[in-house]
Amino acid sequence: MTEKTAFSGAGRYVLDEELAAIVNISMSLEMPLLLKGEPGTGKTMLAHAIAESLKMPLIVLNVKSSMKLVDALYQYDTLTRLNDSRFGDSSRDVSNIEEYIRMGKIGQAFVSDIRTVLLIDEIDKADTDFQDDMLDVLDQMEFDIIETDKSIRARHRPVIIITSNAKKDLSDPFLGRCNFHHIAFPDPKMMRKIIHVHFPTLDEDLLESAVQSFYILRDLDAVEKKPATRELINWLRALNADPDFSPKKLRKGEIPFLGVLFKKSGDYQRAAGFLNRRKRF
């Protein structure tokens, strides 16, 4: 792999050395990279950062529980063909089925004239057959269009990033054909780096008070949806936008805009109750 195609981070994506290494070795070995981690750890944004850094188009396949593999490969638009044959007011040749074939996201990556980054997001939503059959296609870099008896072979092997929120186990054959990296939730030191990227001129007093308060709230027991990095960034935006806010409030346990951090009623109430009890002592 040449220096020109090596990934070392991009824009606002803060990258650690271990993650950069596994991205680059996956590209070198031409293997999909499977990323696991809780929501908000930057799995999806990594694919955006790779595309930005390497100046490649990004194609995103958002996996749904009801999705069939063929939908990710191509679609045959039978309805449009039927309407064209009935009304005859189209410039398309009804006898030519290829005019009614549209590439799905994997198909788009295969027929692209330049190399792409292919993000397959939340693969754990799909059933096992979808997962294993998809990797067969990605191994072979080829699939068949049944309606035209034609094979589509990839012009360039895409950089493949697959994400999972670990809500459902993936099959052993699937895991065996990917490189793997678990993106842990950022520790306070890494979080400060991330915040500095988004807020380069942020007051240090506010930064320290906000980070400390955030991790105290995030570690509360029985929280269903813990606040993630995006919630912290939005919370800092809200604090900055409030002309009456002072970091002293955070140090006193006064947490404004709690609803920016907690999006579920039960979590919000637990956090508010914790803060009320804390004020009494």
List keywords for this structure.
9 strands; five-stranded parallel sheet; alpha/beta; 281 residues; 2 domains; elongated
Largest sheet: 5 strands, parallel
Shape: elongated
What's the gyration radius in Å? 24 Å
Approximate helicity band: 40-55%
Average pLDDT reading: 91
Strand order of the largest sheet: 2-5-8-1-9
Q: What's the name of the CATH homologous superfamily of the largest domain?
A: P-loop containing nucleotide triphosphate hydrolases
Beta-strand residue percentage: 5-15%
Overall structural class, as computed from helix and strand content, comes to alpha/beta
CATH uppermost class of the largest domain: Alpha Beta
Number of strands: 9
Q: Spans with pLDDT under 50 lasting ≥5 residues?
A: none
Kindly identify the CATH topology of the largest domain: Rossmann fold
Total count of domains:
2
Straight-line N-to-C gap:
59 Å
Write down the secondary-structure element order. Answer: HEHEHEHEHEHEEEHEHHHHHH
Structural description of this entry:
With 281 residues, the chain is an alpha/beta fold. The protein folds into two domains: 3-182, Rossmann fold (3-Layer(aba) Sandwich); 188-280. Helices cover 46% and strands 14% of the residues. The strands form three sheets. A five-stranded parallel β-sheet has the order 2-5-8-1-9, with helices on both faces. It has a two-stranded antiparallel sheet with strand order 3-4. A hairpin with a 4-residue loop joins strand 6 (142-145) and strand 7. Helix 8 packs across helix 9.
